[in-house]
Amino acid sequence: MSTTLRQAGIALRLLVVMTVVLGIGYPAAVWAIGRVVPGRADGSFVSSSSGQVVGSSLIGQDFPGATWFHSRPSAAGQGYDALSSGGSNLAADNADLVDAITKRKADVAAENGIAVSDVPADAVTASGSGLDPDISPEYAAAQVARVAKARGLTVAAVAQLVADHTTGRTLGFIGEPRVNVLELNLALEAMR
User: Fold this and answer.
1) Residue 81's pLDDT band (boundaries 50, 70, 90)?
2) CB atoms inside a 10 Å sphere around CB 179
3) Taking every pair of C-alpha atoms in the chain, what is the biggest distance, in angstroms?
4) How many helices (DSSP H) and strands (DSSP E) are in the chain?
5) Is the pLDDT of residue 138 over 80?
6) Structural contact between residues 71 and 62, judged by C-beta atoms closer than 8 angstroms
7) Does the pLDDT of residue 87 top 80, yes or no?
8) d(Cα 107, Cα 162) in Å, to the nearest integer?
9) How many Å apart are CA 105 and CA 98, to the nearest integer?
10) Residue 38 pLDDT > 70
11) Global pTM?
12) Beta-carbon neighbour count of residue 184 at 10 Å?
């Protein structure tokens, strides 16, 4: 048997083995792990107390009105459009972006009864995806008095709810502390 035929046979056997391992075995293992880890493979859906799916803990959404905690602004499509994920792509010194942030700061300050200088950055800027489901504990705290008043709750009770729903840094050092707005608003609704 010639060297070329022998090498071709080895290559063909390697192709079949790698196709089985990487084309069937690996995807099957990833699928199986996705089935075992709860919630992560199905979109991390969040359900209300009645069992109805109301959103995903990974995708931000709009909560209009004084009775809800508000999310970050969204640059995704017409707002929180998962099919149009992305930032505004405007430079930090772009006049349109500066004007929008200035207006948002004034609106957030007026709505929450705080000074413009106390408005956190995440209250006026969209995330890179435009779909960030989390806000900073500072932005949540700035909204506590408004939400408590609108719902007829004590400020202390709403502040405790925010503290209970604040997640620390991942592994103690990655990222920043955060509050998932959907989960916080569901807990707020459960307080009725």
Assistant:
1) confident
2) 24
3) 88
4) 6, 5
5) yes
6) yes
7) no
8) 22
9) 11
10) no
11) 0.78
12) 24
Helices (H), 1-152: 3-18, 26-36, 95-112, 137-151
166, HSE (Cβ side, Cα atoms, 13 Å): 15
Q: What is the mean pLDDT of residues 52-65?
A: 88
Domain residue spans of the chain: 1-42, 46-190
- Quick one: DSSP state of residue 118? G
Reported for 46-52, long-range contacts at CB under 8 A and 24+ positions apart, including other chains, are 46/182, 46/183, 46/186, 48/186, 48/189, 49/186, 49/189, 49/190
Q: At 137, which amino acid appears?
A: P
Q: Does 51 have pLDDT greater than 70?
A: yes
In the structure encoding, which two tokens stand for residue 81, read together? 């459009």
Tokens at 86, concatenated: 């992305």
Residue by residue, DSSP assigns 71-108 as -----STTTT-GGG-------TT-HHHHHHHHHHHHHH
7, 8, 9, 13 alpha-carbon torsion, rounded to 10°: 100
Residue position matching structure tokens 């992560």:
40
Between 17 and 41, where is the model more confident? 17
What gap in Å lies between CA 167 and CA 55, rounded to an integer?
Answer: 19
